[in-house]
Amino acid sequence: MTAREQEYRELFMAEALEYYESMSRHLSELERTPDDVPALNELFRLMHNLKSNARAMGHTAIGEVAHSLETVFGLIRDRERAFAGPLVAVVFTGLDELGAMIRAVGADQPLPDAAALLDNLARVARGDEPVLPAPAPADAEAPAEEDARKLELSDLVYIQVRKLDKLLNLVGELVIDRDRILTLAEEIGHPALQATARHLFRISDDLQYSVMDVRLVGVGVLLNKFPRVVRDVATAEGKEVELSLGGQDVQIDRNVLQIMTDALLHLVRNGVSHGLEAPAEREAAGKPRVGQLRLLALTERDDVLIEVADDGPGIDTEAVRRKAVERGLATAELAATLDEQAVWAFLFEPGFSTAAQVTDISGRGVGLDVVKRALDSLGGQLRIASVLGQGTSFTLVLPTSIAVKGALLVELDGRPYAVPLLHTDTVLALRPDEFSVVGGLLLAHVQGQAVPVVPLRELLHAEGTEALPAADKTLLQGPQQVLVVNYNHRRLGLLVDQFLRQQNIVVKALSKPLDAIDLFGGVTLLGSGQVCLVLDVPALTRLFVARRA
């Protein structure tokens, strides 16, 4: 049995035992008050859930007993049978045997034979007399095993998300102070203090990742909600769509999944509404009438990828290019030089759409800016692949957790800044003669591509809506440290004073009024005690595009 299968079995056991204890309590209440409708409704609901879970896990025998008991509860609820007489004994016996079967699964033992029980449940369902065992003589001793009833507690504890959030924040504070203590210990050089600091580092590191692990959930808790979404949109659009799901057991931070819910909903709805053709159009194009939509989760190093792919007509790159020029997002000259990825990035500009008509479902491009906003808030990325006539895929690249981020520390004017690693492309040391100036822009050639370069200082000090000053190579003295960042398939070089180091950071939100500054995504505290601002690469890139000379 794999670790994942073992985890699912433990979850099933915990919930099943909880259902069993709840049903025992409600059944006792029903015996005292046969007209207790809420207790009866809850019994029916719990038994239905247990039946579904058991069948999903492959425990068909438990599912069969639960189904038979559910049928009896339904007859009682509909007043076709009275909860009285022999029926009471059969139901209590059935619940006890159900508990024994659940415990047998947990102990990895053979399940008890339920044939006699199922026969009795069928009898009471038909209104026949059940076959009950003869009562034991008054002086007879009961067998020792007669289930001394065991009282068991569930291994599953339900915790509110806000409590986990508070715990994670406290761990974040601990990690910040830990780094400060470790730095001080190294500066002081006392062996005992250094050993204690290293031990604190190991313990707090384990605690941090343990708390992060508790917050992980299977992506399936969200993906499994989409079959109904696809069915409703397809019906409204008069389309035939087959949805395939994959990777539901991939683990991700619950808050990351929550933030991406609306974005994923937009992508799926747009995939059905405008990513797939109508049946007649598909047949005319030599395709099957039924369109294919795939929703897949997978892992890539420390990231989680969620892919939404269709086999529709693909993205008409030239139509997007023309629309970008019409909207004033790029000049005709610039648009003509952009590659496919850069052109497709326009789809995620606010209000951008190539659809001739906007429907209630919305068009591909309409509302897709919500996808980029959600990704930016997490430090995620978007990958697009499309082949005209064959289909399109959007892949969301998400961090497994937002508690800790890898960052590159750089220095500017004696102050450290943190740049999330997710947006860092490469670092370079270039001589002044290795730069060129074209149209007032400073350019560096990186891996065969001309990348615009701007001093980070100019972006941080930009005021109003004035254009950034035109580049002047003569001002460059000595080797220049260039950090190349990448956002939305756009590369940008940032001139900094020096590179410090790479490390994991705990990002805290900025307090007022600094939270209104778009260029900073938060703040962290370094081991030295210095406050370090975290640069928002998407905001810096947008500022450069808006203010370039």
From TrEMBL:
Domain Histidine kinase stretches: 197-402
Enzyme Commission number(s) from the entry: 2.7.13.3
Catalytically driven reaction(s): ATP + protein L-histidine = ADP + protein N-phospho-L-histidine
Location of the HPt domain: 1-105
Protein species of origin: Hymenobacter caeli
Top-level EC class: transferase
Name of the protein this chain belongs to: Chemotaxis protein CheA
Molecular function, one GO term: protein histidine kinase activity
Any Pfam family the entry gives: HATPase_c
Domain (CheW-like): residue spans on this chain: 404-546
